[in-house]
From TrEMBL:
The lineage of its organism: Bacteria, Pseudomonadati, Thermodesulfobacteriota, Desulfobacteria, Desulfobacterales. This is NitT/TauT family transport system substrate-binding protein.
Amino acid sequence: MLELHGASRILASFHDIVPNWIFAGLYFSDTFLKKNKESVKKVLQAIEKAFVFIKENEIQAREYLPKYTGIKRDICMIAALREYGAAKEPIERINFQRNLMIKYGYIKTNTPIEHMIDYQYLSQ
């Protein structure tokens, strides 16, 4: 994609360097979860369904990108897409990423986060 805009060639992507890098997560406060349990469950299950759709229908999924991103279709059809796996990330992968962020100074402490991760609203 960058080559089309005059940038030099990218030799590696995030996934080449650190496979299955976790780019984002969702956070809901306990108060919000108590008041909106069913809505949270529906949103998370919709995201899971979207991941499966993207993985199984890449070309069709790419067709939605211009409408929702404003990026030209020809670029959307060749741009790298995130590798969508399971919505439940193994704690080992989360800890690995945390350790990399500590190593390179993005965060300062090895604070345990296991108590903050709750997959009960996802599909079984």
